[in-house]
Amino acid sequence: MSKFIRNVFILSVVYVSILTNSSVAHSYTFKAKGYAPTSDFGNKVESIKLYGDNLSRFNLSSDDFEIEYIDGDNTVKEKVDKIQLGEDYVELHFEAISYNTNFNITCTKTDDLNISKNDIKFDLGDSDKFKSGIHKATEDSEILQYRLYTPQVTSDEKVPLVLVLHGGGEVGSDNSIQLTANDMITGFASDRIQSKNKSYVLAPQLPAELKVNVDTTGKIGWNEPKIKQALLDTLNDLESEYPCIDKSRIYITGCSMGAMGTWGMITSYPDMFAAAMPVCGQGDISLMENIKEMPIWAFHATNDPVVPMYGQKDQYKYNNNIIGTKTIVYRLKELGSNIKFTEFSEEDMLKAGVRVDENAIYNHFAWVPAYNNEEAIDWLFSQRNNKA
């Protein structure tokens, strides 16, 4: 299986190891740090550094270490590619694996250097810039955990806020995986974007039991009424807590299930948002009148088999008006909208590094080229809501 396939997350499946991940007891004391920077396909563990007194006494080589993790139904064991040695440290380098996969590292020379993922303190790059928050449940809204990036601002400065809704693979309660599955969210907090477009970045996590699947659970994801109210309440609370947030520049974006939520939020609360950027989602075509004047730039891949660009899939269709992006675009243009739309061919996806030639399902990954489109990002931040 290719490196690309092993390290990505799709709408309805998250590849997570079932290896035990409890900390390992050692008679020799050392510390471990890992480097797992953000990327288009999630945070990837690229190296691990062990620190301890007189580590050189073990006379270690790369052949002495083995990494084990679960990939689908298979247990994978790999050797370390190379190591760097010092008197009091050893740094292990290997083919990158997903941070969201549990793993164990075994040292064949001494059990004292066996290590599990839980033993390691990771540098997660831009993911580390976010702090945790929670919206407490009310009579009208669900409990909702979130992560928030807060930029450095002066007291008289006004900056926008971007609400980013994750896809179906990042549901849960860890309030973490929405940051590490891909860099859709963390990209907005990167130095590259913040240097041009300073903003707050709000990244909630949908509880797993509410993941969209009309067929089996009847749940509709971000479009659950109490979730939409929780999102609205959270935005209002943050505007009160952070007076530097520019209420005329609240933006919303999301991919896959998050794009479904984006369409749902803007059609329900059109006066809240200055602009929207839905990527590979579906929406209720009967509500497009509500947003015909809103600045929108939508994205979808031509051959998306997960969320079809034109049509419907029963597990996402919570009423008969739910339809794909391109059909929505046609409808909005009929209503006089200036909506922008970018369609990605398979060639476009390959140019973006998405290996659609290995598996057609990766045509769903329109978020990779979409969020690397600097013109679109700059466009988003240039929009202003005159009704706010």
- Our count of helices gives 9
Report the count of strand segments: 19
- The helix/strand order is HEEEEEEEEEEEEHHEHEHEEEEHEHHH
Distance between the termini: 50 Å
**Fraction of residues in H or I helices:** 10-25%
> Radius of gyration, rounded?
22 Å
Largest sheet: 6 strands, mixed
User: Which structural class fits the helix and strand makeup?
Assistant: alpha/beta
Summed over residues and divided by their number, the pLDDT gives a mean of 89
Task: Give the strand content.
Answer: 25-35%
CATH topology term of the largest domain? Rossmann fold
Instruction: Describe the strand arrangement of the main beta sheet, using strand numbers.
Output: 10-11-13-12-14-15
- Under CATH, the homologous superfamily of the largest domain reads Alpha/Beta hydrolase fold, catalytic domain
Shape-level CATH architecture of the largest domain = 3-Layer(aba) Sandwich
CATH class descriptor of the largest domain: Alpha Beta
Principal-axes geometry comes out as globular
The residue ranges in which pLDDT falls below 50 over 5 or more consecutive positions are 1-24
Counting structural domains, the number is 2
Topology:
Elements: H1 3-6, E1 31-35, E2 44-51, E3 65-71, E4 74-79, E5 82-85, E6 89-98, E7 103-107, E8 115-116, E9 120-123, E10 131-135, E11 144-149, E12 159-165, H2 177-180, H3 191-194, E13 200-205, H4 225-241, E14 245-255, H5 257-268, E15 275-279, E16 282-284, E17 297-301, E18 322-324, H6 325-334, E19 340-344, H7 346-351, H8 367-371, H9 374-382
Parallel strand pairs: 1-9, 12-13, 12-14, 14-15, 17-19
Antiparallel strand pairs: 1-2, 2-6, 3-4, 3-7, 5-6, 7-8, 10-11, 11-13, 16-18
GO molecular function: serine-type peptidase activity
InterPro entries: AB_hydrolase_fold, Peptidase_S9_cat, Plant_Biomass_Hydrol_Est
Protein name: Phospholipase/Carboxylesterase
